[in-house]
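ugh ok so i messed up the first submission bc i forgot one of the chains. this is the corrected input, ALL of the components this time, i swear. 556 residues overall. if the numbers dont match what u have on ur side tell me asap before i send this to the collaborators (the ones from the other lab, u know who)
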Amino acid sequence: MSRWNTVAIYGVGLIGGSIGMALQNNKAVGEVIGIGRNARRLEKARNLGAINSFVTDLSSAPVLDIVILCTPVQCLAEHCAQVFQHSVSALITDAGSTKQQFVAEVEKNLPTANFVGSHPLAGSDQSGVEHAHVDLFVDRTVVVTPTPKTNRQSVQDVSDLWTAIGARVVEMSPEDHDRALAVTSHLPHVVASALAAETSEEYLHLIASGWRDTTRIAGADVDLWKQILQENKGNVATALSLLQTRLAAFETALVKNDHESITRLLAAGKQRRDALGS
Amino acid sequence: MSRWNTVAIYGVGLIGGSIGMALQNNKAVGEVIGIGRNARRLEKARNLGAINSFVTDLSSAPVLDIVILCTPVQCLAEHCAQVFQHSVSALITDAGSTKQQFVAEVEKNLPTANFVGSHPLAGSDQSGVEHAHVDLFVDRTVVVTPTPKTNRQSVQDVSDLWTAIGARVVEMSPEDHDRALAVTSHLPHVVASALAAETSEEYLHLIASGWRDTTRIAGADVDLWKQILQENKGNVATALSLLQTRLAAFETALVKNDHESITRLLAAGKQRRDALGS
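and heres the new structure output, hopefully the right one now
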């Protein structure tokens, strides 16, 4: 299709690198330009085929058609403003895990045709461009988060970008996105972390595959997750409170040796898990 | 080695079937006899190579040298008594997930040379002999739970059985076992179940690999897990209470937007998870 000549990826790690590889592989774009601060890491990304070229200073980049911000959540607003200043007609999207605060901030400062928020539900407990791969987004969901103000053609264009690399696009408001992701992504992270921390070191030789699966994401980057949780703190706190109520019900059922309640609680979890498949 | 001519597996599902396959593969035994109630399922187990023959009535079995009980936790004591009545010199062990109640009950009724408790830390969210495989125990930990009364030669014999099929044997008292497994196995199960149940159906298309990993074990058999949790209810309730305290600390840190506490909590989880490896 190649409808964009110059695509920039701002922050070329696991997500950004995978987007770059996939866009080139699908011949969806002209040149893929990496933007970042660390020339050595960008060189590595280029050697891995994630980008075609790179700049460490936005002012030396050509005029950009579309830019995907893959930098940490708390830098997104600043980087968005930088890009707009450099290429006033660029369509900008991002890959941030939370949307409400960031989208509201961008809407205050940018024309509504220039920006559409995105959140690809893909990733891993690993990070770094060395773990990037071309099919990271195939059959994965990407949430695109327009507001009533967002230009519809821009929504279509950003959706086409994700579809071109194999993803399924779902549209939600930034508010609905953050409320849902608090439960489907941020809460599991807190729970995995708490469960891992609650297991004393002397017990680690006694874990089996259940513990291993349940705590896997606790190994992810602490700073990154601190930022995500803080950006969505209200929704995550609410979800945590509801989960604690359910855990307290489990505890009571066990203390009272209440067969029926234990069965009911376990069955509710199994029913929801089975609805998804393995 | 073939030090036992007649080995019986009482309950030939995923665990029992895998033990049967592994024992035959390692030429560790003479004949592997399946014991159960359902002839069709036992026939299936024989066709899959898990057992050499089977009986649906213990009285028609030959004298048994060693018996591994792989029936549900709440049937173990009864099946143990049945086996002892049939083969008074049989060495009996089991594969149950909880130990304290069961071992205490067996010690009241059987000579201490006849029984040593075991718990192989292997399995899966799947069940049934069709999922059994010959290397399920390779490099896995098996906890063997003697008490001060247990005959040491019997402990050695049972340990040799597990070592013969590739497992690492760890000795613990039944009390220590149950306290540890409450944290390393039973608590993750409750948490996975609660997390799955807390996710409303409409959000299921918004989950990513984190949710998928963290909730995987919630799909396991409800009755089996109800029994396990009830057998270890005191320890699981204690572990649940400690976990809720930690989740409440997360919630408070988020509500107060307390950077340092969020970082400290996430780092504690990552440190423990990283100590294990992937």
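quick check: The radius of gyration of chain A is 21 Å. that seems consistent at least. The longest strand of chain A covers residues 4-10.
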